[in-house]
Amino acid sequence: MRHSTMLRIGPVGFRVGSDWRAPVAALEALYRNYPKPQDGIPDFSVRLFAARPWRRFVRSAVHIGGDFVIPDAAPLPLAQGLLAAEMGMNLQMALGQRRYLLLHASGVEKDGKALLMTGESGAGKSTLAALLMARGWRLLGDEFVLIDPVTGHAHGFPRLISLKNEAIGVMAREAPGGRWGPLLEGTPKGTIRHLVPDARAIAAMDQPAVPALLLFPNFGFEAAAREVPPSECFVRLTQASTNYVSLAETGFDALTRFVRAVPARAIDYPDTASAVALVERLWGELA
Amino acid sequence: MSGALLARALREPQSVEALDGAGWTALLAAARAEQLIGSLAWRVDGLAMPDAARRVLADARAAVEQGRLAALWEAEMARRALASSGMPVVLLKGTAFVAAGLAAGMGRQIGDLDILVPRERIEEAETALLAAGWEWVKPDPYDDEYYRRWMHELPPLIHRERDRMIDVHHTILPLTAKVTPDATALIESRVALENGLYVLPPEGMVVHAAAHLFADGDLQGGLRNLWDIHCLTDEFGGAEFDERLAVCAARHGLTREVARAVRLSGALFGDGDAVTLVDRLYIRRLLARDGWGQPTRKLTEQAFYLRGHWLRMPPLMLAKHLWTKWRKGYRPAG
Amino acid sequence: MTRYCAADPATLRIEPLDSLTLIYHRSSGITHVVDSPVPELLAVLGSDALTLDETLAALAEAHDLIDPDAGALAARLDELVEAGLVERC
Predict the structure, then answer these.
(1) Where is the signal peptide (chain A) (predicted)?
(2) Hey, are the CB atoms on A245 and C17 less than 8 Å from each other?
(3) Of the candidates C13, C17, C24, which has its C-beta nearest A230's C-beta?
(4) Of the residues A45, A78, A96, which one is the last residue of a structural domain?
């Protein structure tokens, strides 16, 4: 590949190669405080490539490849090259991660204990995690949380926080002085802008936390909280994990242990302010 | 060139001890691209290596172990579905290697379940599988007719609950290929496993792998195929086996292909068999991967793609097939 | 007469949670989330090859069934056969 860079997010090393300079330059700028993969050997490679040589220049379309790929993944315009790189890294995690039970969840940490939030896209788990980060929690990650099958601990994966549409303005107000990527308009998910996790999240990204509370947030309803029994939690988490099946019995053990140990609540919230208040109240009740 | 790095690591595992971070990165990328990372993990187990490489390889071993269980389970469910019919069910390729506990199964990545059944009973097999929860993958009338008329298998079926594919073959090469293996003889040569399923004898496995290598079009997956052949000849090799292999190859009209496959696997993974000029072209193509595990030398590849199609289908039929595919927006890779 | 046998208990990890039970089937790598009477059914079947009526009788004896219904039991057994936890043998 013409251009490439390496970086490490939590315990996972990546190599990203590109036919164009721009996506790699954007990654290098935004991930400049991140470490490199251990031993110089990445866990996964991502490739951003042109389907035909001349398509590097004419109507450039960025195809996403790598160690693990989905056939026929639609390409993105070059202006969204950063998004393509992020999607490529997410894809490697979703399809290739075997060391940790991968939960499609956001997470924050306080006093060594982890609060995890999972749910459908649009439930606001990224925004909630970013808001809690702005209020002094340590961000574990806005997209994936990694459960170590041996210890049961949650490892962070603090990649760039991917904020969509209204959430971009919300966070610009709540976290003034944050470092941002370019505004990406007209993506398959609307307008997207990446926020760099704060210095603390990056510096402490190798410190795992003990899962203490799991929330299933649901945006758009009166503020309410409902206890989720372990069996329902188990089923919902198998749906929120892309590698539960491929971890076989190890995954079964990890998830069974998790749902037995970690209390879970489904929460409804009408706006972000009441969500944050609700989350902090539930967290306080645990102590 | 990472393809050569991979072949060398499989041939001489100790060679990895000299690799630096960049070397490991290229080796792992090539091994993933060739679907040989599980085999590599077994080969280099216990050698000195950086922690990061050890972790990636440990993950690969766990992944192939899970794949092995899933493959054996698919075979078992196919056995249950077809048990009442009483027809012999012969496992092929990776599932056969792990079911028979062969060295070729160590670390082998396994995709779909491939089984061979007698041609005259293939519709009965189809009915039984449909009744047991398998469904058609794509209800495309053109593809369907193409498969049924010309291919060596039923259109692929997928299980509605387990989401796993099964390919039911009645012979080991398309009916349109110039060489037509003797499927009846293959089935008659079957070896029984304890669980009521069958596999081909080792010489039949080698012949099948060689047939695929040279008939399956573009040599994609060729390195893994040759690694299978190397493991089989290594495990069963000897004068007596060579003779059985020669007889088996001759019976199926694949003498040249089998001889070439054995030479290539020997050159790549064995003691460096003497190779011909044409063999060198094949080897160059087989090892053409860059540091990202990607195929290089596109022109050579294209030539092999057309050659492969040529072998599989007579020219006019090929033109008709490609035209139908192109109209549907399909282009060959490269 | 169709006879049924259950998967070898050594291949099953059975973990009761609240109202439901998790079954991890080692041979298939599949996790089943099941309700009563599936765990009970697997326990009475064991490796004995039982007919439908024998299964119903064994289940009634072990668990005090108030309303033994052969039709419902046959439907459950068919589901378990498709899931691979029970085999017609």
Answers:
(1) none
(2) no
(3) C17
(4) A96
Asked if residue B179 lies in contact with residue B173, where contact means CB atoms within 8 angstroms, the answer is yes
Tokens of B114: 């491939």
Alpha-carbon gap: C8 to the closest alpha carbon of chain B (Å): 14
DSSP tag of A74: P
At residue B172, the pLDDT reads 81
ipTM for the complex shown = 0.93
Q: Which amino acid is at A9?
A: I
User: CA of C69, closest CA in chain B: separation in Å?
Assistant: 25
Same domain, A175 and A282: yes
- Domain range enclosing A139: 101-286
Q: What is the CATH number of domain C4-88?
A: 3.90.930
What pTM value is reported for the model? 0.90
Q: Per DSSP, which regions of chain C are E strands?
A: 4-6, 12-16, 21-25, 30-34, 86-88
SS (H, E, C) chain B: CHHHHHHHHHHCHHHHHHCCHHHHHHHHHHHHHCCCHHHHHHHCCCCCCCHHHHHHHHHHHHHHHHHHHHHHHHHHHHHHHHHHHCCCCEECHHHHHHHCCCHHHCCCCCCCEEEECCHHHHHHHHHHHHHCCEEECCCCHHHHHHHHHHCCECCCEEECCCCCEEEEECCCCCCCCCCCCCHHHHHHCCEECCCCCEECCHHHHHHHHHHHHHHCCCCCCHHHHHHHHHHHHHHHCCHHHHHHHHHHHHHCCCHHHHHHHHHHHHHHHCCCCCCCHHHHHHHHHHCCECCCCCECCHHHHHHHHHHHHHHHCCHHHHHHHHHHHHHCCCCCCC
Q: pLDDT tens digits, residue range B308-319?
A: 444 444 445 555
The tokens describing A181, both together, are 């990527």
Q: How far apart are CA B3 and CA B287, in angstroms?
A: 4
Cα distances (Å, whole numbers) of residue B321 to B146, B216, B324, B327: 9, 16, 5, 10
Reply yes or no on domain B2-327 having CATH 3.40.30.10.
no
- Taking an 8 Å cut-off on Cβ atoms, the answer to whether B52 and A250 are in contact is no
| Cα torsion angle, A213, A216, A217, A220, sign | negative
Model confidence at B228, pLDDT cuts 50, 70, 90, reads very high
Q: Does A263 touch chain C (CB under 8 A)?
A: no
Task: Determine the residue of chain B that is closest to A249 in CA distance.
Answer: B66
**Quick check: C26 contacting B, CB < 8 Å?**
yes
